[in-house]
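Continuing the batch. This is chain 6 of the set; chains 1 through 5 are on the previous pages. Same settings as before, nothing changed between runs. Recording input and output for traceability.
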Amino acid sequence: MKTASRMAGRTRALDFSSFSRLNALLGFLLFLAFVPLSTAQTAPKNVLILSGGRGRVSINQMEASLRSHFSGPVNFSVVDLENPRFDQKAYLDNLAAALRAGYANEKLDLVVAVMSTSVQFALQYRDRIFPGVPIVFMSFIDPLPDKVWPGVTGVVSSNGIAETIDLALRLRPETKAVAIMTQGDPIDRPWLEAEHAELLRYRDKVEVIDLIGPASPDLLERVAALPPHTVVLFQLYPADANQPAFGVFDVLAAVTQRLPTYSISPALVLERGGVGGATYDPSKDAVLAGELAARVLAGERADDIPVVHNSKPEMFVNWRQLRRWNISDSALPPGTHVVDRELTLWEQGRKYFLTGIALIVVQALFIFGLFWQRARRRKAEIELGKSEQKFSKAFRHSPLAKAIVRASDDRYVEVNETFELQTGWTRDEIIGRSPLDISLWVDADQRAAFLKQLLTESSVRDFEVRFRRKDGQIRTGLGSAELIEVEGEPCALSVIADITDRKQAEEVIASFSGKLIDAQEAERTHIARELHDDINQRLAMVAVNLKALKQDLPGSDVKMSQRIQEACEQVAGLENDIQALSHRLHSSNLEYLGLEAAATSLCTELSERQNIKIDFRCCAIPEDLPREVSLCLFRVLQEALHNAVKYSGVGVFEVSLTGSPQAIELKVHDSGVGFDAKVASNGHGLGLTSMRERLRLVDGQLSIDSKPNQGTTVFARVPLSDETAPHSAAA
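Output for chain 6:
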């Protein structure tokens, strides 16, 4: 316990055991005060540590904790206050004067006081030595006052005295006397007083005997004279823990041979014949104090940091001494640490026992796993057999044509009954042969592309194929295929439905739709010509007659003249409307000048009539565009612009018509209110249906991108290829 603090690096250790050493200290401190400090970007913090000695707290651990929580540089100075004359006021005054002189020219940022005596000294002389400097205390044993001192915080620790006394009397309930062995110097007196205060609780049961003095033969004689049923509280400490004094341990050995011995420093007696004791954790005390010190150096006020209470002391006992003094383990308080326990047979051979048990368990699990795996394999085989039977039955009797072909050589492995019915080939005729051998696929290149996609993507969905029956009839099928494994070999499983009848029905419907659209266009042309050549001419004659009638009126009949003038204007407006209607029904520009001129005229006429703005752009439209393609795109443009003007709620629109050798693309865009395109597509509106049907007849595509309040874009694309010709002929 009497361990002087030895600090590495820039730490300065001071010892005040005599007045002569005070003078040496004063000169040393004055020298340090005038040593120039090296310049740095950040000024280091200066921390003064006042140590109460006894080595119960690791100042090194406190420093390490502070540095880990504070990033800046820190200089530490350590002053050891342990001295036999520490209770003399003259000594304390001289010590304070020396410290004040030594630190007069050095700015202290923090004082750390270790143990109660140092705290009392720091509080008593703080105004002389380091006025205004915050103080952090640690290993403070005395009870705190109701109000903590200003500018002070720290860590309060339990001294373990009450717990050690309770442990001794609990393990030896027949105890009649408690002997306290202590040095008797000023530092020991507060501990002796605290032990006396705790023993007052047992004053009716035990006698208190003080054995005060240094380790000596005389002290051994006094120990020998102690009465029976006595326990010893041992508090003699060597001067240096690294070089223990022979006298202290000699006395300890003699005491433990005769009486049960305890200590508030269990580490001192546990390995030297003592029973045990209770103590707090000095390492935790140091870490907590380092954290508080770092917070103060970081700028927090000590008054704002609450005092931290260390954990309850832990009790330690020696198992061999319990056996020696016939103390049962059941008498120990809960949570007591037992050291030097003799290992039981199980504890001595535990690793061998556990290894053997583990081997037995592993072997048992291995055997169980074998049986489980065998049962699982049998179950899997049964399930596989059932699955194969179900698959075979479903494969053979499926209403869809199914076939399995090896991927390596493209030869049939298996086909079902429906395949035989649809192709006219029997199973025995085609097993082992390739689809190309029997000319099943009409387009051999399509077959090659199909196999390439299947091997690349492992599956093909919704492919349409034209196949040739054995009797030469051409049919159309729709199916899918995927790669499977048959007896460890990759194969292609294809499923095809005959859609020949459906395709024929679609062609009939398409032809009928084309005829309806052609009839509609013919009727539009007829009506347009009737309006232009007949109705419009008649209205022109009416306008001429009205103007002649106006000229025949006398000049005095002003009222009648005005009415005839109004009628002339109405007839003129009606003529314009009929002419515009005639153009909408049949565009002569489209017929004679082509799609580009017709689209330009439509946008110009609609802009003037509806008082809107249409930004029209046209690029690379072929002059020899097929009539049905031009008419289709013109009608789609009419319908799209009509809907945009009617429903968008805006007055600006964008129209683009772009041509290329592959296709013609039309786009109509507005930034209006928009709509739900999915709902509109699923509805029964004739406008969208008409546009889709017209585009379908020329192999075109229509897409609508619209969302509520995000505008609408109508996009139509018509490919330019030889495939357009049949639709033209059909139309």
